[in-house]
Write a structure and sequence with these properties.
It is built from 19 helices and two strands. By secondary structure, the protein is mainly alpha-helical. It has a two-stranded antiparallel ribbon.
C-alpha cells in the first residue's frame, strides 16, 4: 500500500484512461453527450427527496400530529441512509452491473419519494428511508461512471454532475411550496418529485443496452483501501464539509428567523445561497485542476463557507444577501472539489467506486452528527453562539484534511 505522486491533474486524468475504460466508453450507446445528459438527469434526482420536506415541514407536523422527535427522525434518517447504504454500492455493481444497479435503484428512489404522498408518519419515514438508501447507492456509483467513461473530461464532468446535484436541491426547495398551493395539499407536492425520477430512469435505460454488463467483473474487494492514509483524508474531508452543508440546510432558516427575518425572507436567503452553489459547483473543479494539487482550492472554498456563515449570523441584516452568496460559493465549490478528489486520486474506475463508497458512507454518517449537535447546543444554550463555534471548529478540521487530500498524489494499493 503506497501513494504515487502525480505530476498534475492532467497526468492523473490521463492515467485513468485504461484500455478497459476506453473500450467501455466506446461501447456506450450513441454519442457521449447522450450519456452525459442521462447522467445529469439522474444527478438532478439525488437531492429533491432531502430538500423538499423542509419548506412544508410545519404543515406536515400540524396535519400528522407527529412529535418533535419524530420530525427530527424524519430529517435525519435519509442522511444516515446515505452513509449506511452507500458502502454496499460497489458490491451491487459487481454483482448486477453498474448500469442496471443505477436503473433499478433509481426506481426504488422514485417509489420512496412517491410513498410520502400517503401522508402518515410511517409512510413518510419509510419513504425517507427508501429514498435515502437509493441516493446513497447511486451517489457512490456515478463518480465511478465518470472515471470510466470520461477519463479525459473528469474536471468538467464532475463540475456538471455537482451542479446538477445543487440544482436539484434548489429546485425542490423553491418549488415545493408553490406545488402545495397549486395542488391544495402537501402530500401531492412531496410525491410530485417521484416523476423526475421516472423520467431519469427512462433516460438511463439505453445505457443498459449499450454496453455489456460489468457484473462479476472485478468481483474481489479492493484490498487495503480502508488502511490507506490518503483514502481516510479524502473520507474525512468529505464528511466534515458535508456536515457544514447539512448544518446550513437544517438550521440556517431558524437562525435567520431568530435574527429578525420573517420566515419567507429567511427561506429566500437560504434558497438564494443554494442557487449560488450551482454556479460554483460547475466551475470549482475546472479551476482546481489547473494546478497539480487541489489543496488551495479546498482551503479557499472552506474559507468562503466560514466567512459567509459568520456573516449570516453576525453581520448587519442589510448585508445578508452578500454573505449568503459567499456561503453558497464556498459550499458549492468545496463539495465539487471533494467529489472530484475521489476521481482524481483513484487509479481506475474500480478503485474510484470503492473509494466513493468509503468516503460517502463514512462521510455522510459523520455529517449527520453536525445538525444533531447544533440542535443539542441550541436547546442547551438558547442561542446560536455555540453553534457558530461548532461551525468554526468543523470548518478548520475540514480545511486540514482538505489540504492533505488535495496534495497531487494517487492511491496505490
Amino acid at each position: 500500500m503506497s501513494i504515487d505522486s502525480a505530476s498534475g491533474p492532467s497526468a492523473a486524468e490521463s492515467r485513468s484512461g485504461s484500455p478497459a475504460a476506453g473500450r467501455a466508453a466506446r461501447l456506450s450507446l450513441g454519442h457521449p453527450l447522450l450519456l452525459a445528459a442521462s447522467l445529469v438527469l439522474v444527478a438532478l434526482n439525488l437531492r429533491p427527496a432531502l430538500s423538499s420536506l423542509a419548506p412544508v415541514m410545519g404543515d406536515v407536523v400540524r396535519d400528522t400530529g407527529m412529535s418533535a422527535g419524530q420530525a427530527g427522525l424524519l430529517t435525519t434518517s435519509p442522511v444516515l441512509c446515505l452513509g449506511l447504504f452507500g458502502v454496499v454500492a460497489p458490491r451491487l455493481a459487481q454483482r448486477f452491473g453498474t448500469e442496471r444497479t443505477i436503473f433499478f435503484v433509481l426506481l426504488m428512489l422514485g417509489a420512496g419519494v412517491a410513498l410520502r404522498g400517503v401522508g402518515s408518519f410511517p409512510a413518510l419515514f419509510a419513504g425517507a428511508t427508501l429514498a435515502g438508501a437509493g441516493i446513497g447507492i447511486i451517489g457512490v456509483l456515478l463518480p465511478a461512471v465518470v472515471k470510466r467513461d470520461f477519463p479525459k473530461k473528469i474536471s468538467l464532468m464532475m463540475g456538471v454532475y455537482t451542479m446538477a446535484l445543487c440544482a436539484g436541491a434548489a429546485t425542490a426547495a423553491g418549488l415545493t411550496v408553490p406545488l402545495e398551493r397549486a395542488l391544495g395539499q402537501w402530500t401531492g407536492a412531496l410525491a410530485f418529485w417521484a416523476l423526475p425520477a421516472v423520467v431519469a430512469a427512462v433516460a438511463w435505460l439505453p445505457q443498459m443496452r449499450g454496453r455489456p454488463s460489468d457484473a462479476g467483473q472485478g468481483g474481489a474487494s479492493v484490498r487495503g483501501l480502508w488502511r490507506n492514509g490518503l483514502a481516510w483524508q479524502i473520507t474525512l474531508f468529505m464528511g466534515l464539509q458535508s456536515s457544514l452543508a447539512y448544518i446550513v440546510l437544517g438550521w440556517m432558516a431558524p437562525m435567520l428567523r431568530d435574527r429578525g427575518l420573517d420566515p419567507a425572507m429567511a427561506g429566500l436567503v437560504v434558497s438564494g445561497s443554494v442557487m449560488t452553489q450551482v454556479v460554483s459547483a460547475l466551475f470549482a473543479p475546472m479551476l482546481a485542476t489547473r494546478t497539480p494539487g487541489q489543496s488551495l482550492a479546498a482551503a479557499a472554498m472552506l474559507g468562503c463557507s466560514l466567512v459567509g456563515m459568520i456573516g449570516c449570523l453576525y453581520a448587519p441584516l442589510a448585508t445578508i444577501g452578500l454573505w449568503a452568496v459567499i456561503l453558497g460559493i464556498g459550499q458549492g465549490g468545496v463539495f465539487a472539489v471533494a467529489l472530484t478528489l475521489i476521481v482524481l486520486r483513484s487509479p481506475d474506475s474500480r478503485v474510484a467506486a470503492h473509494l466513493s463508497g468509503m468516503s460517502q458512507s463514512v462521510g455522510y454518517t459523520l455529517a449527520s452528527t453536525g445538525p444533531f449537535a447544533v440542535g443539542l447546543l441550541h436547546g442547551w444554550s438558547g442561542d446560536w453562539h455555540g453553534s457558530a463555534l461548532l461551525f468554526v471548529v468543523v470548518a478548520v478540521l475540514a480545511t486540514v484534511f482538505g489540504i492533505l487530500a488535495g496534495r497531487p498524489r494517487q492511491i496505490r494499493l
